[in-house]
Amino acid sequence: MDPVAAPPSGTDVLDGYRAPSQLVLDKVIDRVDRHCAGFIALSPFATLSTADADGWPDVSPRGGDPGFVHVLDEHRLALPDRPGNNRVDSLRNLAANPKAALLFFVPGVEETLKVFGTTSLVGADDLGIDLTEFGRAPRSVLVLRVQRAYFQCGKAVMRSGLWDPAGRVERSSLAPFGQVLKDHCQLATPLPDDATIRAELAQEL
Questions:
Q1: Is there a contact between 178 and 193 (Cβ–Cβ < 8 Å)?
Q2: CA dihedral 33, 38, 43, 46 (to 10 degrees)
Q3: Closest CA to 79 of 98, 99, 95, 63
């Protein structure tokens, strides 16, 4: 009997990909230029990627009014920290490993923007600008010093139909969130209905 072939290594699998084009390589810049700044000014939603000291990754949604991430200059972004669930996983990670990445989305636009850099955490008043949103000052501000930035082509968003109204999922297609939490946490007592949960969340914006 022939011996069982060993599964391909990660390197072997990567060898099957063609090399990126020169344009794909050249689009990576070390600053936030006017096009990046314009995109960020229109973005109401971004994901923040961090990793802890052991390299375990985390990704967290961040949102606000368009431009809620502030462009301080070509090399610095300011991300105010708004009320959340108080786990502060991202901030704990960044205290141990300051490297982070932001992925910006603009509704209706298929391209996205990636920005990478190192971070520092400062007080809400330390930057000398008004960061009030939804009537509240942030609890702290994450300043990202930009090392790389580039636009991601729209293929993934195009494939997903993310902005296609016909693809919108009705919330009723899923279990009520209160039921999800009750089951996840194995609670004996029911939680409030989703309308109540949403109203409570809206008060904390």
A1: yes
A2: 0
A3: 63
The tokens for 145 are: 């010093």
In the chain the domains, ranked by start, together with CATH numbers, are 15-160 (2.30.110.10), 169-203 (no CATH)
Please list, residue by residue across 138-160, b when 16 or more beta carbons sit within 10 angstroms of its beta carbon and e when fewer do: beebbbbebeebbbeeeeebeee
**pLDDT tens, position by position, for the chain (205 residues)?**
556 666 666 678 888 888 989 988 989 999 999 999 999 999 999 999 999 999 999 999 999 999 999 999 999 999 999 877 788 999 999 999 999 999 999 999 999 999 999 999 999 899 999 898 888 889 899 999 999 999 999 999 999 999 999 999 999 999 999 999 999 999 999 889 989 988 887 776 6
Contacts of 150 (CB under 8 A, 6+ apart): 27, 28, 29, 113, 114
Q: In whole angstroms, give the CA distance from residue 22 to residue 20.
A: 7
CA atoms of 164 and 28, how far apart (whole Å): 29
- DSSP of 8-63, one letter per residue? PPHHHHHTTSPPPPHHHHHT-BSS--HHHHHHHHH-SEEEEEEE-TT--EEEEEEE
Classify residue 58 as exposed, middle or buried by CB count within 10 Å of its CB (0-12, 13-18, 19+).
middle
